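Postdoc handover notes: sequence design on the structure in folder B. Input tokens:
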């Protein structure tokens, strides 16, 4: 009989997405959507717990900030935030998800993602390496597609947020925009770009719940 081979394992999520940030981003969006729909609110803690388990620390931060903003806006009670912080606390104690690398590694990782690989030019500069730095969506667009494209993208996003009037699509767009600070998958066609542009259109048109 052939000798058995060691099974190679990966820390990348399976099923929901190919990377932890993308999986965490999808779950963060799902968490906020569940909170915005009264009948789906019981699912929000489950979705948030799954977000923690993906290991995407930035998705956890964005989700918590979004829940806090919804509380301040009077959209939900403070109970979801208490539950969310409780889940984060459990994650810290047992060492799951985002706590795995420690705060020092998180800071280094965040700085790496925001560093520019090259300075943007007025016109397109070409596609950057997939696993390089510069994961901020706006600077990524400006570097690859040019400063004019970056300005156009930022103008459309600003218009959509201004016209959105805090309905469900507005909250989801804000979450995606927050996620885009540390990763550019809202710019990639095969990831979250279709959802991002759909929400841009709905908010610019002032589509309500």
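Designed sequence:
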């Amino acid at each position: 009989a052939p000798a058995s081979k060691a099974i190679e394992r990966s820390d990348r999520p399976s099923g929901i997405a190919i990377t932890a940030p993308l999986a965490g981003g999808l779950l963060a969006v799902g968490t906020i959507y569940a909170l915005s729909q009264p009948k789906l609110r019981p699912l929000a803690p489950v979705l948030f717990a799954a977000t923690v388990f993906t290991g995407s620390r930035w998705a956890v931060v964005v989700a918590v900030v979004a829940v806090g903003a919804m509380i301040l806006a009077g959209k939900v009670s403070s109970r979801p935030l208490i539950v969310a912080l409780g889940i984060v606390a459990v994650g810290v104690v047992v060492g799951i998800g985002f706590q795995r690398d420690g705060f020092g590694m998180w800071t280094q990782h965040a700085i790496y993602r925001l560093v520019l690989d090259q300075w943007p030019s007025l016109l397109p500069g070409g596609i950057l390496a997939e696993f390089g730095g510069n994961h901020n969506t706006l600077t990524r667009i400006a570097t690859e597609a040019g400063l004019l494209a970056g300005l156009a993208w930022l103008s459309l996003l600003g218009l959509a947020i201004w016209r959105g009037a805090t309905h469900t699509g507005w909250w989801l767009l804000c979450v995606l925009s927050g996620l885009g600070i540390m990763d550019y998958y809202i710019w990639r066609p095969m990831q979250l770009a279709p959802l991002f542009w759909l929400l841009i259109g709905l908010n610019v048109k002032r589509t309500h719940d």
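Context for whoever picks this up: The mean pLDDT is 76. Don't rerun without checking with the PI first.
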